[in-house]
Records
---
Amino acid sequence: MEVNPPKQEHLLALKVMRLTKPTLFTNIPVTCEEKDLPGDLFNQLMRDDPSTVNGAEILMLGEMLTLPQNFGNIFLGETFSSYISVHNDSNQVVKDILVKADLQTSSQRLNLSASNAAVAELKPDCCIDDVIHHEVKEIGTHILVCAVSYTTQSGEKMYFRKFFKFQVLKPLDVKTKFYNAESDLSSVTDEVFLEAQIQNITTSPMFMEKVSLEPSIMYNVAELNSVNQAGECVTTFGSRAYLQPMDTRQYLYCLKPKKEFAEKAGIIKGVTVIGKLDIVWKTNLGERGRLQTSQLQRMAPGYGDVRLSLEAIPDTVNLEEPFHITCKITNCRSSVSSSIKMGLLPTHNTHRHIPVICSYWIFVECNEESHALHLNWAVAHTEHFKF
């Protein structure tokens, strides 16, 4: 009959504790009126309670702080801090102690130990302490693996591990929408408006310290989340930048293509990279978190091989007087040059007092850059185009 050997006791003890900010101690006030049976007993007990505020005993929040009683929640973008202690519980001197801490995620294994060098010896009732930090960048299951190896006085090498599993949750829900600027003079308003909707999906309020857009090399960005009042820049969200649980806040940004890219429409065709959002917030007692989105991509509107846009056109014109219109032709193709045929089609109108504009066709050779054409005609009679 096989007998399982007894489990060997280790000379060292490993303790791991997560380091978090304390919370304000909450007290449940119990009071009654003096004419009730307890009289002033409850009020006197609350006045004698050291956790209550003197003169405001019926308030739930006191002046004391309490340490976390459990592991708590860890959110994406926060810094995970943990205290690791190895204590010698025996009466022997232990040698060659090596403490290693790894963090296993769904995609990688990270070494969090500050030093990989072994401690020469550890006397009885002495300990080895270490504090590890890691900025959490993945959601899902994380496993903290703490391994300890040492050598006893008899020369026997010992080794043991402990596993600490925790979940990393998503703190914010970020949604983005793109809007193309619509204007009759579209050639000078190639702006892209980005709307970012940020929702707090945690159970505690957040202080939004910074929400900014880092544009790509093709764009310049302007934030539209503040207004100028009496020479001062005031945010549109008010003086308090708190985001309550399940609340949503909208941020707006305007992106304009840089001059060297705006003149070459073929570069910004198809899918273009806009940039990424950088979000920084604080929670209870100043715990900071930071998130950066992946590169935001936008499908640029398709203009075909050639894009014709209006640069300038008068609001009103006089009858039978010539007026000027400035057009812009942009070659959106990747080839060096294109032959473009341009003209005005006849306009058929049921109103007799509006004349018919005859067709005029011109041929233009244009390269990758844009060409501006100045057109001149009258309402009641036709005039030749002038360049």
---
Amino acid sequence: MDSKREKDQDADHEKITAVLLKSRTGEFDLESILFLKLRNLGIHDLGCTGECINLERLDLSGNNITNLAPLASLRLLSVLNLSNNRVSNLEPLRTCDILQNLNVAGNIISSIENLHCLVSLRKLENIRLKDNTYNYTNPVCRNSSYRAVVLEMFPNIKVLDGERVVGRGSDLYQLCKDIDDTIKAGLYKNGQLVEHSDCKPWVEDSYWEIKRSNNAIIEEAYKQFNDVLHECRLLNNRATHVISQTERSMSLKKQPKQYAI
């Protein structure tokens, strides 16, 4: 009986229904749902998901989804995780105007043309088509020019496949990527790096030096901080001395009095 009930529940999860959404979120109205996580449920039909018109974050990873049509009405969606599904067509996402973060790693997106429908999404800044951690990818990622083309298509993108391409941290990502490329190119022989006369360092010699600011306000703040730190150390030493004296005094009072006979 229990096994039959479990099978019936699994069958219900193959299609997203109002009952499933309400039981998962505790919301009575679908329009009240803002965040939704339906991972690894064997879902292949998005059903009434499109009725959650105020949905902002949606996680559908690890299912069997192929058709994204119901998502076209989610105009407030900002984060969408569709990793590890069977999606090949992203066209319905064209109307998700404020989408910022899209994860479609581990699907069957075959060509760059499949991404053209996302170009109009001006707020899209984080796209993931492959994920090395879980070994998720798409056929389009096999294209040697895939990364360069995607960056050209989406000039506002900040993070591609988990790597920051602009802004703070992008230099470090690029440096690590260059190191990886060097290793993969087989420049090591018998554990030693083969030197080339045309090799140049990745960064300038002064790149790692900590430079003091000439800003007078910063210098004054730095001086005041050191003064406060010095005072704290003095107070700590005084407190330690007082505590030590108090403990010594209390230990003497607890000792039994001895009388000489």
---
Amino acid sequence: MPYIKAHYHPFLFILITMCAMAELGLTAYLISVGNESRNWPSARYHSLLILFEFNAVWTTLFGAAYMLWIVDGAVHFLASIASSIIWLAITSALWGAAAGMMHNTRTGGNCNWILNSSPSVNGVLPCDPPQELSVSSCRETLTVEAVGWVLFVLCVLTLFATCMWVRTSKRGYVSAEYKPGM
């Protein structure tokens, strides 16, 4: 079992951290562009982007910390298996809630409706450059949601794998106080 612990756990935390960093960059960009133009589709969308940003910062910081603690072999409380299970459960709930709310907030999965819906969208003809920005913005929103779902699945997978590792390693564990035959 030490082989499994030493090899899959850091890899999953690296994946979680890298996806969170991508989400951090994308949501920071979308928030910055929205703040500059003061053009938000809704207040709920703006709030959700801030929630995604918080989740991305939370996941990047703690994911990187756990990854380094695992590789370093740290033994303090924050580096324990129990704390990583608690962190993974909280993080899974945060990403699942954020991605689910984004799914209900956005208008749909087909971004081509913007071009095909009418000769003008918000008074802009399809040939005008701002129209392309609307399609791009739609795709960026889909990407934010998709990466949120990926992070949710990665956190749940890591949580499940960690719990299974703990369960299988407990089977072969014999307490120092237990001495057979006494």
---
Amino acid sequence: MIVVKLRFKIETNLIILVSLVAALASSAPVAEPRPLITNPSAVSSPLALRLKLEGSSCWESLFQLQACTGEIIMFFLNGETYLGQDCCEAIRVVGHDCWPNVVGSLGFTDEETDILQGFCDGEVSHAPPPAIVS
């Protein structure tokens, strides 16, 4: 008797499950594929704009910033008061023109980032005038 009730319950559940799957399959909309972009450079990508891929020196400055991390670390560890002109230029371009929060995301605190940017901004105002070539 228990086996018959259990078998009936399993068969009923199976019928309900099959009916449900059939109903979902018949009512599901057909997915449309996205149109292919044949010329991706012709489309102005928001990602390309956010990454500043065109018309700026952001990426070159970011790579320069990576190259001078040793100099920046020594700036803080030894209390040196010198950063090379290329490092300061990279810090200025990345921090002011490209991605203001990137310097801080490299592991420097907000205070250290402010010190770096302040030092490099001060170096521009104290730089000697360019030599005049005759």
